Inverse folding.
């Protein structure tokens, strides 16, 4: 029940923010989400280095704001700066020496895995009908997660990735994709967005698959760190990263799809 209530409240709040906030305040929200998610990631990967945890979190949290201020060109330039800065930090704060390369790598991975993909939500919103495209992305992702969870729970038999995520099943994965298809078709019927039925089906399948890989990669990180949840910020959901993990890969995928084929 906590999971359902929290999910509904978060979904309703996100839709309101997406529709009624300006581009600046939407970017501030993405900055907060990216910063909290990156902080959780750093706590379970480089917690022994408090300085690097703080530096990586601050540098990574700014990435979405850079995307809002300067677009994609500024974004790539800033990412280059963050990598150099993290390496310079590790050069002067390298104790313990035996783990410095691992810690530096984890810091860079966190920013490129969390902050950079989430910044594409801001780039998406700047496109024509960007808010509607983000809404489609969220609906497909939410339906994918929900259908995958309940389908796997009811009829799941064959493990999808037993080492990384023992509870996920092949049946749940297929059910999640089917749920995304249902959401995409329903969205097409009630939205002003220009999208054909075939395109809706294609996006539902591709975004659903990308979302499941995104979810599995976060599970891989937690499994390697020996933790169940990234945090306990949200009742019934764990941490912020646990809640947004399925959006991390599909967001950039949808943005580049629209840039190549629609804009």
């Amino acid at each position: 029940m906590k999971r359902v209530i929290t999910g509904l409240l978060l979904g309703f709040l996100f839709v309101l923010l997406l529709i009624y906030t300006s581009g600046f305040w939407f970017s501030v929200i993405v900055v907060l989400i990216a910063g909290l998610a990156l902080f959780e990631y750093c706590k379970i990967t480089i917690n022994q280095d408090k300085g690097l945890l703080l530096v990586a979190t601050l540098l990574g949290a700014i990435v979405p704001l850079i995307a809002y201020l300067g677009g994609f060109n500024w974004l790539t330039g800033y990412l280059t700066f963050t990598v150099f800065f993290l390496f310079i930090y590790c050069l002067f704060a390298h104790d313990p020496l035996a783990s410095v390369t691992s810690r530096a790598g984890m810091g860079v991975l966190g920013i490129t895995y969390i902050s950079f993909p989430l910044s594409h939500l801001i780039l998406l919103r700047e496109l024509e009908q960007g808010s509607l495209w983000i809404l489609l992305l969220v609906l497909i992702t939410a339906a994918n997660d929900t259908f995958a969870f309940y389908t796997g729970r009811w009829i799941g038999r064959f493990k999808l990735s037993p080492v990384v995520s023992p509870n996920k099943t092949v049946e749940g994965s297929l059910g999640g994709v089917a749920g995304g298809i249902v959401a995409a078709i329903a969205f097409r019927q009630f939205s002003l967005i220009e999208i054909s039925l075939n395109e809706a089906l294609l996006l539902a399948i591709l975004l659903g698959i990308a979302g499941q890989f995104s979810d599995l990669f976060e599970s891989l990180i937690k499994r390697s760190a020996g933790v169940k949840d990234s945090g306990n910020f949200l009742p019934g959901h764990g941490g912020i990263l646990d809640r947004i993990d399925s959006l991390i890969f599909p967001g950039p995928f949808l943005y580049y799809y629209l840039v190549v084929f629609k804009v």
Remarks:
- Residues 129-263 form one domain.
- The chain has a mean pLDDT of 88.
- The longest strand covers residues 165-169.
